[in-house]
Design goal:
This protein is an alpha+beta fold. It folds into two domains: about 250 residues, QueA-like (3-Layer(aba) Sandwich), CATH 3.40.1780; about 90 residues, QueA-like (Thrombin, subunit H, Beta Barrel), CATH 2.40.10. The protein has a nine-stranded mixed beta sheet with strand order 2-1-18-17-15-3-13-14-16. Helix 7 crosses helix 8. The chain is globular, with a radius of gyration of 21 Å. The two termini are about 40 Å apart.
């Protein structure tokens, strides 16, 4: 058997992570987190406060951020028999196609995850409230189901009232009221509700920090990528080249495409705020072959050997061992450099994952 090259072997993306280093709560202040700067030119890693970001970014960079909004997408309901059911909506609200239903209700087909001690059968109904229910249309693997949602009133308002924030599986506590604000970027667009995970690199930004960046000449543009639950799905292929990436819906508006192209023409670096922004821009470039507006799904898997068409630098959090996101940042900075930086971060007391500290790859 031909050995798998190191950069493509899943085992090459392991690193030891003590459970106590996984952040269970956000920092007291958004910009109070720490920042590890990986400088590819000098080969040095340095530690800073996130609030120093304006002094550390590449000069005149254009920052591109994901403005999708996390929906309180986890609902708790019951079958007609009384059995308890947990449902996580995976279809972003703006992508639903509502139609008139019975008794003045609205309905739409959607995809979600169902969990119950005894899984609901096809045709079975689950009620969350007098105004919101679902009927199972098709069952798939790992609890994934196609369902028909039925509701009265405003669907977003119903999720805001009944739903729970879908904290990642490695945050072991129940969601709290504070998570509705902190597991959300300050620039999330209310019209872009539907992510089931936060674009976590953006959680560190305060409005004041953004204003400082603009005042110092940095550009800001936005894309939308509705973060799906697949972001937490493990890579199971021993040879990562055999991994099939989940698809996510991406919107790169015309104004953002113009700003990115202008930055490129002027020789200014394009910095993706988070892996979801990087995936949006690189997915657009793969689909179009150039920088232009894009709206559609991308299943791009960014791994070593990827030629970056848009992204020059990246602001990101620290990612799970053997995850597609760790593989992505390794494609940008080199696997060995990333693992060395992670080892330094652990030795320096950095906090990991969604509510943890950040890394700037420049």
């Amino acid at each position: 058997m031909t050995p798998i090259p190191e950069d493509f072997a899943l085992a090459s993306y392991r690193y030891p992570l003590p459970a106590e280093r996984i952040a269970q709560e956000p920092a007291a202040r958004r910009d109070g987190s720490r920042l590890l700067v990986l400088d590819r030119a000098s080969g040095r890693n340095t530690t800073h406060a996130f609030a120093e970001l304006a002094d550390l970014l590449p000069k005149n960079a254009l920052l591109v951020a994901n403005n999708s909004r996390v929906l309180p997408a986890r609902l708790y309901g019951a079958k007609v028999s009384g059995g308890r059911v947990q449902f996580l909506l995976l279809t972003p609200l703006p992508l639903l196609s509502p139609r008139p239903g019975d008794a003045g209700r609205r309905e739409a087909e959607a995809v979600g995850l169902l969990r119950a001690s005894k899984a609901p059968r096809v045709g079975e109904k689950v009620a969350f409230d007098a105004d919101l229910s679902l009927t199972v249309l098709e069952r798939g693997e790992f609890g994934r189901c196609r369902v028909k949602l039925s509701w009265r009133g405003d669907l977003d308002a119903l999720f805001q009232r009944l739903g729970h924030m879908p904290l990642p599986p490695y945050i072991t506590r129940p969601d709290a009221e504070a998570d509705r604000e902190r597991y959300q970027t300050t620039y999330a667009d209310p019209d872009k509700a539907g992510s089931v995970a936060a674009p976590t690199a953006g959680l560190h930004f305060t409005p004041e920090l953004r204003q400082r960046l603009l005042a110092e000449g940095f550009g800001w543009a936005e894309v939308t990528l509705y973060v799906g639950y697949g972001t937490f799905s493990p890579v199971r292929a021993l040879d990562i080249r055999e991994h099939h990436m989940h698809a996510e819906w991406v919107e790169v508006p015309e104004a953002t495409a113009r700003a990115v192209q202008q930055a490129k023409d002027q020789g200014r670096p394009v910095l993706a705020v988070g892996t979801t922004s990087a995936r949006s821009l690189e997915g657009m470039f793969r689909a179009r072959g150039r920088i232009e507006a894009f709206c559609g799904e991308t299943d791009i898997f960014i791994k070593p050997g990827h030629s970056f068409g848009v992204v020059d630098a990246l602001l990101t959090n620290f990612h799970l061992p053997e995850s597609s996101l760790l593989i992505m940042v390794s494609a940008l900075a080199g696997r060995k450099r990333i693992l060395e930086a992670y080892a330094q971060a652990l030795a320096s007391g950095f906090r990991f994952f969604s509510y943890g500290d950040a890394m700037l790859i420049r």
